[in-house]
Amino acid sequence: MTDPAATPLYPLALRLEGRRVLVVGGGAVATRRVPALLDAGAEVVVVSPRLTPALTALVDAGRLRWEPRTFTPSDVDGAWLVQVAIDDPVAAEEVSRAAEERRVFCVRADDRTRASAWTPAVTRHGPVTVAVLGGGNPRHAVAVRDAIRDFLDARPDVADARPEAGAAPPETRPATRAESRPRERPESGAPVDGADAVARGGGWVALVGAGPGDPELITVKGRRLLGQADVVVADRLVPGLLLDALRPEVELIDAAKIPYGPARAQEEINKILVDRARAGRAVVRLKGGDPYVFGRGGEEALACAAAGVPVIVVPGVTSAVAAPGAAGIPVTHRGVAHEFTVVSGHLPPGDPNSLVDWAALARLRGTVVVLMGLKNLPAIVEVLVRHGRPATTPAAVVQEGTTGQQRVLRCALGELVARVRAAAIRPPAVVVVGEVADVLATVPSASVER
Ligand SMILES: C[S@@+](CC[C@H](N)C(=O)[O-])C[C@H]1O[C@@H](n2cnc3c(N)ncnc32)[C@H](O)[C@@H]1O
Q: Is 320-449 assigned to CATH 3.30.950.10?
């Protein structure tokens, strides 16, 4: 193959909807690349003896096909594109040879000089997608992409194609890198600017809320810190497209993959955060929704504080409010609900370890939002009705809220268990109980099941 830096590339955008893309490998690289392929509507087939938990979750959700074995050349038949996500050069060469023979473009994670196609560094702004190639230098591509992203963040009118979008007023000029750095005061001491701490050779940990599922619902600050990270420790529920945008050299640790039970696993995560930060690295602990809403973020903040590691907390958009909101359910509404209560349903009512007063909740007039409540839904509905919440109360369940897979089911509280079972609703989902579930029923919503 010719020197990739010497021959000009022909840039192209692919329509992958309904087209098969073969991914060979089921590790960290595949975990980063697959979400963008699925987002483009590709029919993804992963060939690998093993998968990461994040990819396993996509298989369980029926979003991709998994062939649990090693590659054979006929796997390329029928594919429009091949992504080699393994680092064994001999095995990777076998895949790209099979692709070349069949005239199928092939991207290689192990050696881009041997690939027939490259993936650019990408930033998306509404309808505009900017893809950058760095002449064979992915770090350069990412740096240029980040500069363009910062510019478009500061000048959303430029990416907005509406005819009325005009020149921005002078005060909306793009922030410089220095201006846009985080200025935070950590729990454990002096004011911390994440970038400054790194410049001083000191590491830090940022507990960043990734939002409920739509990758655009991370905060601007969260995304900036993600762009500065050397290490990202990600939960299972974080939007995959955020991982796709990471710099290639970022160490990505899948927290769901850490063995042991929940208590030991949490200790292990705390240790990873502290050890990496003490080694001078910029660590982002990326969590679904908000890090302090049933996210064990508090334990991680305490562990870092105890170790003298600076912690930056970046709140996130919690699914408790966002999933109902995306389904057309406001958790409060004037004249209807003046309060909303968010509870965890992971323990059933009556469990000696449960800290929720379900009887008191049943007597409230406002909205009750239950997270992690599907497994114990029959007991939750029973206790709410027994203690006074009418069985006719409007209720809803929102599965995978704010994502392309969002499903919404609405019915009376008394029918909820049977309807959820019949519709095969599965986690992650939030349950909403209260008059607000119906208050915007006349506003059209694409994904409502009645
Ligand atoms: C361990 S809790 C973490 C909550 C998260 N910290 C937050 O603020 O959204 C996980 C639960 O959040 C809810 N959840 C998270 N993402 C969701 C989504 N996109 N749609 C519906 N529910 C979601 C589900 O109840 C899920 O079982």
A: yes
